[in-house]
## 1
Amino acid sequence: MSNLEKTIAKAFLEMAEGLENGSYGVRPKIALTGMGSEHGEENAMAAAKMAAGRGVDVYYIGTLEAEGVTTVKVADEDEGHKKMEQMVENHEVDGAVTMHFPFPIGVSTVGRVVTPAKGKEMFVANTTGTSSADRIEGMIKNAVYGIIAAKASGVQNPTVGILNVDGARQTEMALKQLQEGGYDFQFANSARADGGAVMRGNDVLQGTPDVMVTDSLTGNVLIKMLSAYTTGGSFEATGYGYGPGIGKGYEKLILIISRASGAPLIANALEFAAQLVQGKVFQVAAEEFAKAEKAGLNKILEARKAAAKPAAEEEEVKAPPAEPVTASIPGIEVMDLEDAVKALWKAGIYAESGMGCTGPLVMMSEANHAKALEILQKAGYVG
């Protein structure tokens, strides 16, 4: 057969496959390691067959075979994992879905869920791996990683919300600086009456932002709960898993699922991987990192390392005479709350710490509110 005849035959084959499954063009090649699941190899193969029917060219690494799926035979889980890494490294496949992978520091995974209240998809940034040894720096990076995953999956202008965990307010301040520097993204607005970019549990359930920023440990819990809340936890039934490892300069498309993941979720993860290939995730990543760095990302991270937070006063600071505290300033990290109060005491302003429905508060009199806000802003406790 001549090269022309091969080209024509390939084109007709792609057309036939497109008519069959609704997906036209070159089918992304995605490997799946099937051994090691708590639900057995049959569960993983069922997922492979589902994904193949949706237009993914699945390379199943394990012992089972099925029509429409290419099986790469291995003897055990360890051999399967090595084979997967080899296939990704040698570009025999475009990406892989697996149950564990040792990402380097600086690379972490962006999960994807279907939220229960409205059936809306949401990216959780991040869910496994470590973006940075510093919690706040990691969450700042996670926002960029989440935007990359969302854009490569077809969400053109993803909105970003920050889960109300330790570090949320500092992350918000840094992201606002990045936005002011020219990095073009939009904050989500909480569905709660008081709004804001800091998200509550209600927003998790409703999928208020396209990208929910958090630390990877919290993100891991969110993914598990949102994937298995209908099954009692033993079978992750919905969503797309823990997602791809994203990091600057990192170009291995490896997506993580759990050993408890069920066939429907694994099939979604395979399709997620295929979407990232078609969405040119590494090209999107390079572009987004360049934009963020041009907007001052590196300077923001360096400034954070240098200043982090004003240290607690070494000398003993006594409280000024007590007075009614009817005004308050929100948006302060819980770990910094007492230091913020002492900063106001040192300036002669009586203040108390408190906890409102949106998080930690520093309370003072109405007369001292404006001056207190100025002091706390200069000290870096609020934005």
## 2
Amino acid sequence: MIERTRIADLASLPDGPVSVAGWVETVRDQKKVQFVVLRDESGAVQLVNPATREAVEGDDASAAALATTESISGLAHGTFVHVQGTLKHDERVKLGGLEVKVGALTVVSAAIPETPIADDSSLDKRLDWRFLDLRNRKQNLIFRIQTTLEHAFRTYWVERDYIEIHTPKLMASASESRAELFQLEYFETTAYLAQSPQNFKQMAQPAGFGAVFEIADAFRADPSFTSRHATEFTSVDAEFSWIESHEDVMAMHEEVLVAGITAVKEKYGDAIQDVFGFELQVPTTPFPRVTLAEARQIVADSGYEVVRADGDLDPEGERRVSAWAKEHHGSEFVFVTDYDASIRPYYHMRHADDPTLTNSYDLLFNGAEISTGAQREHRVDVLTAQAEEKGLDPAELGWYLDFFRYGVPPHGGFGMGLARVLMLMLGEPSIREVTYLFRGPTRLTP
């Protein structure tokens, strides 16, 4: 490994010799002194170099100092350098209260002087040059937060004896809606990219796994250009046995989110305040719950009419229900429950006393839906009838229906979009900002 100290670790060191490395963010080339802001993956530090503009003939030291000065003068934004120097703590320095006096500077990889993007570049332009866009502190923080959030989710489940599974993303048939599937050639037949691990995480229930989770890619051939849709995304899924109703799923779901947001606040709360300008709040449980019928009434009472023909909420309706939850319950989260059977998949369990309603929910967060969950129908005769009611041929569901012919406990779970959670948690305008490399209807590169 190249000898260096991460910039974030400099504050814990005493004054003295130090080696740092990173890329050049800014250069202030003054007549008598040069300042460089050097950034690495952990933070930024100010470098200072007393400028030498002329060398004394025959003086090797002054020649070396001149070479360093000229090298710094020629540094372009983004150039990677390795610096050996002297660390000095100085509270007058605005950037972290310390600086490094340059002893020797080596250009490891020079950057082209004119960068293709700027702070005011459009989002599409920035995505074209994503590797440069990701260099800024905000983007770095977003993906550190994502790492902590995922780790906290996993920790919650692992500590409760859930099994992590990795389900295939190549499928022989549709898991939910064939209309939203990507189709591809697969040797002598046709395969589809999985839009959900739904069937496979349910398979773990008759397999006796009890409780499972997965954090993995999913694909949807949805030609949508909204701020919250993608054709490839990270889905956070869980499924577990021996539930009494979807209330059990909701209770687990809110605990997972509290665990994740708590971990993020503990590790990055101060940084979020500094970079995003707000204090991250850990939600309290239970989250408020309203039925879909009640949600429709809340929206109507607010003076808005949902224009969807299927009776589901539209984005504006979701925003209004979320605003109601914030006003009346002080909550950024709200469960909308008991969805109409007509707008839910065939495998959602129906109400025992009203087959027009399902034991299901959507979870809204800061004005948008982030997840759908439900109790699954585990009785094969009922499941078959519900599939036929939806116009599906049970013969095409044979391998899936087989799960339920050999015994399966009552079970349920949810699927949640990771990027949506990050977007709404951090107040970003689009999932494109919180997705490492976004994929949409017109974007396959970089």
